Amino acid sequence: MKVGAGVGGERGCGVHWKTKAISALPHHSLHTMIMNHFPHKIRSAADQLYRHISKEILEGVYRPDQQLSEMAASEKYGVSRNTLREAFRLLIQEGLLIHRPNRGVFVRAFTVADLEDLYTFRRMCEAACLRHIGSDPDATASCIAAMRQSCLDADQAMANQDWNALAIANNHFHMAIFSSGGNSRMTRLGRTILAQSRLVFMTSGQEDKVHVPFIRDNKRMLEQIERGSLSAAVISLEQYLNRSQANMAKLLAEKQ
Asked: pTM to 2 decimals?
């Protein structure tokens, strides 16, 4: 993936600096100069890269505790180091990556202690989204279509015993809930919280035990939403998340 043109003398910037003058600057001064000259270019590319890596985490491309090398990532995504560092900063801020002094940037690994906060947040936000389904008819139609497709994808993944595909299908179902109101802020928040949840599931090392028990629950919620029984769907969701939290606490305790 090529996220965008680099900065600081790379082609496409429209500005050329003298190499000697730049190389003589301390690293933090160089970064400040670049951000001052090209704030929109860097932040736009960094935000695009942030979204892309978030999606990759959601899809299981990166594993908990995996180190992300600046050199390798910069080459993989076709961006400058400054753009990459800004994207990493956003991902650290969102709780998806962590920085370890003198070691570098790593994908965050969650523990049992993180579960209460994560699941409390999900119960609050997803339930609120379900209660407001129908407020935006177009978004609701897209939501239901995405839920139907995710259930079909989950059945196919189960038949193939493809646990990564099953995890992706489950995430798509819950992403549809977060997107059901057509609110861009909630959609972005949902993407982050589901990426964090995926890291929790991967940390357990037993994603088949994480997702398989809840396929039936997703189908039940979809049926309730299609009937317009939103109160029943909210209750089903809360029960679903309570069982999921208890299941994850058990799996993580066994892992640790």
From this structure: 0.75
Q: Are strands 67-68 and 97-100 parallel, antiparallel or unpaired?
A: unpaired
CA 233 to chain centroid, in Å, comes to: 24
How many Å apart are CA 107 and CA 232, to the nearest integer? 37
Q: Which pLDDT score, from 0 to 100, does residue 147 have?
A: 96
Those residues whose C-beta lies under 8 Å from the C-beta of residue 92, and which sit 6 or more positions away, are 98, 99, 105
Is 90 exceeded by the pLDDT of residue 218? yes
Q: State residue 165's pLDDT score.
A: 93
- Per domain, the residue ranges of the chain are 45-107, 112-255
- What six digits make up the tokens of 225? 């939403």
Give the fold, CATH level 3, of 112-255. Four Helix Bundle (Hemerythrin (Met), subunit A) (1.20.120)
**Token code pair at residue 247:** 């299941």
Query: Per-residue b/e over 160-174, b at no fewer than 16 CB within 10 Å?
Result: eeebebbbbbbbbbb
Segment 21-41 mean pLDDT: 41
Q: Specify the CATH class of 45-107 in words.
A: mainly alpha
Whether the Cβ atoms of residue 157 and residue 165 lie closer than 8 Å to each other: yes
The strand pairing partners of 104, in sequence order, are: 100
